[in-house]
Amino acid sequence: MPKSVVVHQIHFKREYPEYVAYRTPLFFCDDWLNLYLDHYRMHNDSDTCQENDGISCSDYRFVYMGAKGSWTPLHADVFRSYSWSANVCGKKKWLFLPPSQCHLVFDRGFKSCVYDIFDDASETNFPGFKKALWLECSQEQNEIIFVPSGWYHQVHNMEDTISINHNWFNAYNLSWVLDLLSRDYKEAKEYIEDIRDICDDFEGLCQRNLAANTGMNFSDFFIFLSRFFSANILQLYCQLREEGISVWSSSKMAKHLVFNLASIRRIALKLTSMDVVAGNHGFFLDLMETLDDPNFLKLFIDVGRAYGKIHEQQNCSCDTKKAWMVEFLDYSSHIRNPEDFVKFIDYSVAKLSASFCEENLLLSGLNNWPLFEDQ
Ligand SMILES: O=C(O)CCC(=O)C(=O)O
Questions:
Q1: Rounded to the nearest 5 degrees, what angle is found at the Cα of 322, between the Cα atoms of 316 and 326?
Q2: Which of 12, 63, 165, 166 has most ligand 1 atoms within 8 Å of its beta carbon, as the pocket-test mutant?
């Protein structure tokens, strides 16, 4: 097969925001990444920062177009997110390698990865390569492929093909994002270790390089988690205000929100014990400012919409939400480090419990986080 690595990738939603060409299948709507990026940038570089005008704001929703014979080299997805890919027309061949075998496609120093699994050089330069067991799958028109976190894959267009593709993460694969950040941070640090002594701000440079290579740094991740947690807990508060305590037995949406909160807390706790955030470089979030920000209100409303859609549940009006948000927010504080964030999480949960406390499973689940530890 003649090979041309030309697969054209378009940020479809960003470039044509008014054109509703498709709806995201319900299975894939629990998407924290694109929900967030609809209102915030993941990384704000003061050198290049522009207004968040909806065009400069990035997202991870693409259309791929490739002629027959074009292909996408071996890789694992950005942030170790999940991805789904729907063929509008054409046919693709996918080759997958599960995470347990991924070490086999790296060189001895674990620095570079095989580019093309059909290239003979792969066998010479990558000692474990021959042992890799590939899963092959062909995808026809109108079929959707789901790619789990951390699975390496190479993709070939067997015909002229157009596909729609999203990357996303949520409570279930959030730990993959943290693991990738930790690994890439270590690598970024090692790479410039020899100039540490002559660097005014070594940690700042590591974080800048991490953002450039990985798409976010620890500060971005931390701010993302804080905002997303706030939107989720407020959503839960609205549900409790609207439906009262019966929400725990009747609402799948409430359970889902609790699960999200538990997952964020688990990651925040991990952050407190990691030396990758030594000095807490660049960690700062003014909660009051965050909650006053119109972008936050939009995120909060969109979180409600998304989970309302997933669980086929009605949502209260934007005005009601706004009023309840103000009511909930007497915790005016700055979050300066992961410890502050965990305290804020525990404070908000305690507040929620105090307002609506009854003997019930979900509240104790929310308070006794380890209940969710193994999920
Ligand atoms: O369809 C393609 O060519 C690439 C898709 C892909 O690699 C992905 O979904 O991660």
A1: 130
A2: 165
- Going from the Cα of 145 to the center of ligand 1, the distance in angstroms, rounded, reads 10
Which residues, judged by CB distance below 6 Å to any ligand atom, belong to the binding site of ligand 1?
A: 7, 64, 66, 72, 77, 83, 85, 92, 147, 153, 155, 163, 165
Nearest CA to ligand 1 atom 10: 77
Q: Mind listing the pLDDT tens digit of every residue in the chain (375 residues)?
A: 334 566 777 887 777 878 888 999 999 999 999 999 999 999 877 554 444 444 444 789 999 999 999 999 999 999 999 999 999 999 999 999 999 999 999 998 888 899 999 987 777 788 899 999 999 999 999 999 999 999 999 999 999 999 999 999 999 999 999 999 999 999 999 999 888 888 888 888 888 899 989 999 998 999 999 999 999 988 888 888 787 777 767 788 988 998 999 999 999 999 988 876 655 566 777 877 888 889 998 999 999 999 999 998 877 776 776 666 666 666 556 788 888 888 888 888 877 777 766 545 555 665 565 444 444
Determine the Cα–Cα distance for residues 62 and 374; give it in Å rounded to an integer: 33
77 Cα nearest atom in ligand 1 = 10
